[in-house]
């Protein structure tokens, strides 16, 4: 029983008596399928979820499992499309702040996806995500959904204008160059744009002071040839794909840069490509997949880089010390993360090399993280060198797990992987405890 202003209420369902605004706040903390399921509780709950402003519609585990059978692809897609359409038809609220689709869909589902985009446009969506590559590693561009410039109706064309859009994430969606220009023109509030696995985008030219775009990400776009960004307040940029002609013009707000140009690594002269931004960057991530191709003779001063992440293809037990030249170019460096990629650790018997003292010690470096440590001489001498020259070091984190993957799958089978991890962990304990200075915390995961 509940006391209400001196009276005794026998109602136990005090949650249902709350205002709709409170109930919507509660439902917004649940997965959408659970929020919809509350409709069976009572008449009071039937339509509460229909006013949610966050609609994230994933394929449930049952559909994803059936999807693994190629014979059932079309049937499962139809089930998912019906599920999304039911949500859209029952939604009653005037606005949808976030609309997210995540399922394996392609150009054969164009009409359904067009309908969903019209819904998002009518509901003044602010965050829109189309992830059509769920559990798919690759899809031919001709089979991907094309992001539209307009919709065709019986009487006319309706142009896709997302005036309220702030964030757009497109995965497995073709974004042609004209569409990209139109998006940036008709979405005056767009701050975040991510495009993955777009097949028909070759030359990206984005610039102009009127742009509000702050975060730009391009991944897995295999046909891309050039990117030129200039004269707007971009804060972070990520590019992961083939070696290209990358030019960054005047971008005075640039703080975070993450670049991976395929197997070319730094051979594509990345530092000359980002030269106009080096004095602004605070977080820098570089992928160096083939060490033998890398030239490290002309690294510019990176005065404001506080976080540096290097992903290195360490497939052989080759010396890694030369990559510390990049860290040495960062006088403000505080966090240094090194990820070593290998499928099976090749071990060479040799003595440790003593690298020449850097032009400056790592005076501000507090945290060193090394992922993929196996205990090879190349691993050990790299950590020992940094320990010796990092006068402010407070913590070392060693992750012995294999970092080599295809998609989200480890390269090695589980049993072999676990055995290698145990060996690597043992090497890390025996090698690094004795060289870790007093007062520096050593963490071996």
UniProtKB/TrEMBL annotation:
It holds the Pfam family F-box. Residues 12-66 form the F-box domain. CDD domains: F-box_AtFBL13-like. PROSITE patterns: FBOX. InterPro entries: At1g61320/At1g61330-like, F-box-like_dom_sf, F-box_AtFBL13-like, F-box_dom, LRR_At1g61320_AtMIF1, LRR_dom_sf. This is F-box domain-containing protein.
